[in-house]
Amino acid sequence: MASDSESLAALEILMNEFFAPQTSNDRKREIECLLHNFSSQQGAWKHCLYFMSNSSNHFVCMYSLTTIEKIITKQWLGLMWEDRAQLKATLYQLALEHHQTAPNFIRNKLVKLVVDIARLDWPHFYPDFFTNILQLIQNSETTVLGLVFLQTASEELVCPWEDLSVSRKEELRRLLLAHIPQVFSILTALLERVAQKQRHGVTATPPPSPTHGQPNSTSPVHSGSLLSSMFGSSRCSLENDSDSIASLTLQALAHLFSWVPLASYITPNLVTALFQLATITQSSPRDEGQCVGTLAMAAVNEIMYKNCVPSSCEEFLLNLFQQALHLLHNLLQAGNLDQIDETYLEKVTEFLRLFVGLHLRRLENNSRFPILEFLTLLFKYTFQQTNLDGYYNCLDVWTIFLEHLQTHKASIERYNDALVSLVGQILRKTQFKYNQAQLEELDDESLDDDKQTEWQNFLRQNIEVIAKVAELLPMDTYNQVYEPWKESVMVYMRLERALEENEDCRKLVVTAEHECLRLHCLLRDLSSLTQAVGRMYPHFIGEVLAARFSHSQKLMTQLTAMATYASRLQLHHIQVSAGVLTSDLVEVHAQVLAAMKAWCHWLAQMHSEAGLKHMYNQFIIDIVDATVPLLAKQGEPAKLYHSAAHLLASLTMTVRPARLWEVESVRDLYRKVASLSYLPSESQRLVKRALCCTLLLPCAGLADQGWDQRQKLLAALLESLTIDFRQLQHTSPVSPQAACPVITSTLTLLNDLVTGMQSESSNTRQLLYSAIQMNIYQTLSMFPTYVHSPSVCEVILDFFLTAFGGLQQQLGASFTETTVQTFLDVFTREHLSSSLGQEGGAGARVVDKFLQLLQLVMAEPGHQFKRFVPSTITLCLDHVYPLVAETPSPDIKPSLFALLHAILMHKWQYFYRSSLLQTMNQMGNETVEHREEFIKILQAYGQSLLQPDINIFGQNLRSLEQLNSKWKLYHKHLFGEELLSQFVTVLLHSLIHKSHALLEEEITVAIYHMAAVNFKAFQSDFLPQFLRSTEGLDDGQRSILQRNFKDDVDLPSFTQNVQRLVNDLRCYRLCNYSLPAGSIKL
């Protein structure tokens, strides 16, 4: 047998060869096999200790440490006491001897292995573990090592590792907490010493007094202090050793703060020390010590994340926030945010967000906290941001603050000035008039994932904050938006004077470059401000309509005048010297129409006001004149078509003016509705829907709705819109490729109409049904013809889904039965198999739609639909389920199980026909009809819980819970005798194996409800049987698990018992599997 020195030499050769770039993959696999065999042999760890002590090869050291790690984590309890003592002592000694010379990754690995041993042995078999850490930190030669040990201990001993029982986890946390006061005291001293060293290095002249020129010299933000004197100091980097110690200390503190309770542990001195470092380093050059400041703020933020703060800690929080205000004040006073590291600023912004979101309510009314000065600093910090992400993050802070005020409206008055200033500054930031250089850099062409350009996103985020302020100060905000908008409108309305017309064209005489630039900026600002004006409408409707009517009437008059003016002059068709002006003019016109669309809600309420009929009618005429001629004309910009179509749709669906179809221009649009192909597809849909809604929707305040006339006009309109569709039934079968566009466009239109009318009156739905009845019949008759065309089938089934949901009463039971039977006849087992096997998923989508349709049928209460229950169950269990049962996650599984859920939920009497009196009797007297089908459905549920698809698992778990809530499923004798224990077993195993960890809470609640059928039987019968059938445990461990599961019957306690059972069972199995054969289990 080779000696240790020979083995070490051979290992070094192998490791160097493995990591050599010229080594082939085959050779690497051979070396891996050799290394694995060596590390798996008995006593390999002893050789590894020798290798660690006698080799400087980093590859050898990491291999040795990895081998030892396996021994500690998987075989520790099986080692002899002497071996464990040797391993522990040697690793600790190696860490002490080599922590200054070894690379950090090796040092950190050594430390982790020692902590892993402590996780199992401390304090009983490793009593001096934590005492050693404290001594290392306090010794200047080993401070760094001690800090690494401390952070590793915090990370490894508190985390919920699987190989520890719940009692051991609780013990480790308790042991660590006992040392925390001493730890924090030592770390505070370390940070203070680092800060003291830096202060001695500051040689620059102290800054002026922070109270100079300030009216409130007693404010904590401006009072003199040690912290104040540090700001503005000359930039002085920390020494290397101080920087390293400070960084490690702050990282350790950040992790400790994440789990240590706030009360009585985190001292004011420690917080002061943290802010001292944050203050010192925030003004350091980007490459010197910036990390320390960022780490200090990260540690502070860990404290801020603690939301559950006892009232006794208010003084502590006040001290913390006062120091934060110092930092923010001096950060802004320097005026150089562009020179500060972005990561540091992100931490500062995170602090502000946490403060406002979690803690402001605690200090808002404290007389010693200067809330208005805080808002002033937040305001300055927001608008001194030098990049968009930083600015957006600050807007998020303001949004949180505004939402806070929404719930405390009584205290808004003192914030009025701050909110008005905020709106004013946001408006300045979004206007080219004040911020052209930055705004010109924003991309207005490329779309992001939300289909917005960078400019649109910027504008939206700003306007949303303005809208939030408007909810609190509606008129103040409106006036701030309205005034600059009005000024821009005045210039816009004078553009007509700058037009020059000749025989060939119309020309804008603004030609000078600087004048074109000014006009470009004005039009961009007008467009932005018009968007903001559009967002103001909610504050002029409802109870305040009359009180604020003069403002809203004036605004709406200006908007309609602008729209009429733009349509009349066709400004986007004039010749301009700068091409960008054309797109600017189109954008303004489109935004005006969009703003009018928003204000249609105001116009709808205006109709009911007495004495305003003439004004109301004029607004209607103006909107029609601004939209219909534009939509009727070819060659206009798509953006204008889009805005005009949306405005017309809102006019007809929201305002609903009387007899709009009698207006001449609207009548012309009706006549040419079938020839609007030049419009973009969405605009076409909107216009057609708007024209139909004019006839379908009742007009407000009109006694005679003229339903007879509406019916004739609607029939004529839909006849012209569906003529191509109707011709399909009079010609020989058209190929699916040719028929698909016609069927799709027609049924999409009808789909839109049915969807829009679902919540309307029965008169409206009856009118719609009478107009599309023949189309519905034709669609059903066509279905068998196109059943082998998935694209056509999908559209047809989608339409019937909508029709069944919106026109069920009008369709009637007889037609519904005919429709369902037609579909059932078509969807044979062979057809289903063929559809689900098609590439691209088109066939699966068709089957999915069909199953969704059957869900609606099963949910119908009428007795005539009961006859479809057997055929639907057969379809599900015999035809569809066998095709998808074993596939991991097919598209139709959600709909299949949703249909089974609908059957059980709405057709429960198909299985249980017992009366209420019988239901209240003993479970043993229950009579179950169609027993086999009932069991097969629930077995399908159970099978789905064994598969990895978490969506299906969650869907079916919720379904079972709903069935239990409504029909007491778990209490049924059949379920209890044949299925209950199986379901509980499956759910417990899912917790043990963490197969659906995201649903842990829902799974535990379901287990509770199942156990609640008979808690005594669960405890005395099920649990022992479950533990006996669970492999990887010995009888002693089973006894402990049974004994630790208390007989609590409330949900919180039961949940804790389940969590303890699952954790400890997993822990025992891991430990048992890692022990060598013949080991004694303790």
From TrEMBL:
Subcellular location as annotated: Cytoplasm; Nucleus
Main localization category: cytoplasm
SUPFAM superfamilies, sorted: ARM repeat (SSF48371)
Feature: compositional bias, Polar residues: 211-222
Cellular component GO terms, alphabetical: cytoplasm; nucleus
Residue span, Exportin-1/Importin-beta-like domain: 103-282
Coiled coil: none
Annotated region described as Disordered, given as residue ranges: 198-223
GO biological process, one term: protein export from nucleus
Molecular functions per Gene Ontology: nuclear export signal receptor activity; small GTPase binding
UniProt entry keywords in alphabetical sequence: Cytoplasm, Nucleus, Protein transport, Transport
Domain Importin N-terminal: from-to ranges: 35-94
Family: Belongs to the exportin family.
Protein's name according to its UniProt entry: Exportin-6
